[in-house]
Amino acid sequence: MKKNLPELSPVHMRRLWLERQGLLEEAPFGLGRDGAYAAIRRLGYVQIDTIFVVERAHHHILWTRVPDYRPEVLRALQTEEKRVFEYWTHALSFIPTEDFRYFVRSMREHEREPSAWFRNVTPKQRRDLLRRIRRDGAISIRQIEEERQEKDHEWASRKPSKRALEHLFYSGRLAVSAREGMVKHYDALERHFGWDRRPAAVSRREEASYRIDRTLAAQGAITFDSATYLERDLRDPIRAELDRRARAGSLVRAHVPGAFAEVFVSPDDLAKKEDAFAIDPERIHVLSPFDPLLIQRRRTRALFDFDYVLECYIPEAKRKFGYFVLPVLAGERLVARIDLKADRESGRLVRKAWHWERGDFDKKRMRAAIETKLAEFARFQFER
């Protein structure tokens, strides 16, 4: 611990994080399209995942914060209003379009130095696909007729053009203009957004500043590790910007006893009292495994005493809690883990296992509140 740092208690840091995540009150971001967009702005991005054991992660994350959310809302934001776009953060995600310029440098680097995943994509494949899309409009991989080949990876497609499409996408030449489930339709980037040309890239310092602002908005008090989560090339400029803001006084260095030797927090947030946050112990959220409250495991463990592993990637014999376990948040505590599966033929949620966390709370009363939330979660998935 650095000498003479002010103290931020773990409770304070946890409550600040929950408030920023929109998990302490009903509909903190509003409702409908504007509410969903406000939630994405606050979180910075919403992760996309293909797993379909229950409702897919991006829809689940938004429903948790926007009570009237339905998947058609995200489709409208992406395809009609174009207020969000898809690109890579720590995973493929929905991102506010107003932040597009902060990803252009990465797009240029993907085009100039493609990863090994795209080593077999030829310039001719790229040119032919771009020419076809510019001439005929958006396409999906299903519309490409070609001879199939053997997969070289379990996640790969048997169609060679899929990687060419993906490389053009990561290079910022194509945008995902629409989705049908997990089937993506690709269009020329400028045509999709109605731009004359792609926005210019920002400087590395501006990009580092953006990453810090995004993390502060979503977490309140941040560590260097949380600001640089899965970043490689921005660690030095992010460290320099955090140090600059600390010297200027717009951020304060503090320590969190038993959790973090150094965090960065605004003076106003540091001055808040622990009891200034409205905590309702019966406000229940059944969280997606990909929820931003869970995705940085060390942070979740330090502030919630909750060690979480998504066990669908683990052999069945080694699983402790179940295949697709959803953590349950009650107020400010993670109180249970429920292994759920959506039975879409019968229109019901199957509860394969229910595990309580340690703690002194009324499990009978808590179970009733969780059952109510599970019924809402089932209606969200099956009654639309």
Short structural description:
By secondary structure, the protein is an alpha+beta fold. It contains 14 helices and 12 strands.
Describe the fold and architecture.
The chain is an alpha+beta fold and 384 residues long. Helix content is 38%, strand content 17%. The protein contains 14 helices and 12 strands. The chain has helices at residues 10-20, 32-43, 57-65, 71-80, 104-112, 123-136, 161-170, 189-193, 204-219, 224-227, 235-248, 267-271, 297-304, 363-382; strands at residues 46-47, 84-88, 92-96, 139-140, 174-180, 183-188, 252-256, 260-265, 284-286, 325-330, 333-343, 348-356. It has a 4-stranded antiparallel sheet, with helices on one face. Strands 1-3-2 form a 3-stranded antiparallel sheet. Helix 6 crosses helix 7 (161-170). The longest helix is centred in the last third of the chain and has 20 residues, at 363-382. It is globular and about 65 Å long. The model is unreliable at 151-157 (pLDDT under 50).
Please outline the helices and strands:
Elements: H1 10-20, H2 32-43, E1 46-47, H3 57-65, H4 71-80, E2 84-88, E3 92-96, H5 104-112, H6 123-136, E4 139-140, H7 161-170, E5 174-180, E6 183-188, H8 189-193, H9 204-219, H10 224-227, H11 235-248, E7 252-256, E8 260-265, H12 267-271, E9 284-286, H13 297-304, E10 325-330, E11 333-343, E12 348-356, H14 363-382
Antiparallel strand pairs: 1-3, 2-3, 4-6, 5-6, 7-8, 9-10, 10-11, 11-12
Q: Major sheet: size, sense and barrel closure?
A: 4 strands, antiparallel
Q: Termini separation (Å)?
A: 52 Å
The tally of strands reads 12
**Proportion of helical residues:** 25-40%
Instruction: Determine the oligomeric state from the structure.
Output: single chain
Silhouette: globular
Structural class: alpha+beta
Element-by-element helix/strand order: HHEHHEEHHEHEEHHHHEEHEHEEEH
